């Protein structure tokens, strides 16, 4: 059943769009089921939960971290994480860099852009991120590899607002590729409720949870 959900979503995604199956709050058994159907990319948003699953599940899973990450927890995931989507401050990026150097790896990262109307969501504003990238200190960091932009749209039924949030991210992502290099190639936006809008506005990495695994129990 889980694999049927994954296949149905994949059939709707344009070529070149990667599906990250968001497995937070769901047990390892459900991840195994998706894995047996061929899914390899999974997203988690809590370090402790991710560590438990990492221990028991196959080592060729590509784990993505998608939630708000506290600096004091970076060290636990640094050795194995495939992509951190949710880098929301220069301080966090500096810590990921420090831990990446310790592990002798460049940790793939996305910078989280705040485009939604809710104040509560995390991320850099467009102006903050432009300034941060222009200042250029990230270029000297050998423990990170910045590969693109992540965002979450406003939590609303208004499709025009959602599309406009994604458009803001898409335009900023293009600006980054033009000004800071082709390494800015990942555009992580779109969740269960809005992934079809997201791919219309340039997403090439969607993060889908409830539409695959069902509602989460908190
Ligand atoms: C939980 C979560 C998702 C998946 O949400 P669904 O609506 O269940 O698809 C995607 N991105 C982030 C950052 C999340 O925290």
Can you describe what's shown?
- The protein has a single domain (2-213), classed as TIM Barrel, CATH 3.20.20.10.
- The chain has helices at 2-12, 28-36, 47-56, 74-77, 90-102, 126-135, 159-180, 195-200, 210-213; strands spanning 18-22, 41-44, 62-65, 83-87, 107-114, 144-152, 186-188, 205-208.
- It is globular, with a radius of gyration of 17 Å.
- An 8-stranded parallel beta sheet has the order 7-6-5-4-3-2-1-8.
- It has 9 helices and 8 strands.
- Helix content is 41%, strand content 19%.
- It is of the alpha/beta class and 218 residues long.
- The structure holds pyridoxal-5'-phosphate.
- The site of pyridoxal-5'-phosphate has 14 residues, from β8 and α9.
Task: State the helicity in percent bands.
Answer: 40-55%
CATH C-level category:
Alpha Beta
In CATH terms, what is the fold-level topology?
A: TIM Barrel
Oligomer: single chain
Number of E-state strands: 8
Bound molecules: pyridoxal-5'-phosphate
End-to-end gap: 22 Å
Biggest sheet strand line-up: 7-6-5-4-3-2-1-8
Average per-residue pLDDT, rounded, comes to 97
Order of helix and strand elements from N to C terminus: HEHEHEHEHEHEHEHEH
What is the CATH H-level superfamily? Answer: Alanine racemase
Strand content: 15-25%
CATH architecture classification name: Alpha-Beta Barrel
Number of helices: 9
Spans of at least 5 consecutive residues with low confidence: none
The overall number of domains is 1
Q: Assign the structural class, choosing from mainly alpha, mainly beta, alpha/beta, alpha+beta, or little secondary structure.
A: alpha/beta
Shape category: globular
Roughly how many Å is the radius of gyration? 17 Å
């Amino acid at each position: 059943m889980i694999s049927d959900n994954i296949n149905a979503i994949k059939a709707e995604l344009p070529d070149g769009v990667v599906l990250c199956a968001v497995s937070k709050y769901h047990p390892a058994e459900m991840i195994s089921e998706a894995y047996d159907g061929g899914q390899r990319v999974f997203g988690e948003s809590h370090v402790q939960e991710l560590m438990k699953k990492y221990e028991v599940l196959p080592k060729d899973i590509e784990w993505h971290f998608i939630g708000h990450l506290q600096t004091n927890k970076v060290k636990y995931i640094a050795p194995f994480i495939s992509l951190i989507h949710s880098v929301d401050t220069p301080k966090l990026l500096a810590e990921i860099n420090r831990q990446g150097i310790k592990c002798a790896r460049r940790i793939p990262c996305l910078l989280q852009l705040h485009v939604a109307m809710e104040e509560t969501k995390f991320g850099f504003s467009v102006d903050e991120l432009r300034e941060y990238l222009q200042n250029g200190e990230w270029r000297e960091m050998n423990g990170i590899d910045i590969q693109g932009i992540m965002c979450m749209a406003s939590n609303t039924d208004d499709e025009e607002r959602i599309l406009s949030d994604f458009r803001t991210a898409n335009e900023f992502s293009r600006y980054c590729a033009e000004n800071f290099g082709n390494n800015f190639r990942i555009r992580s936006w779109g969740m269960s409720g809005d992934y079809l809008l997201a791919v219309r506005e340039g997403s090439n990495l969607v993060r889908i949870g409830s539409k695959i695994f069902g509602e989460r129990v908190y």
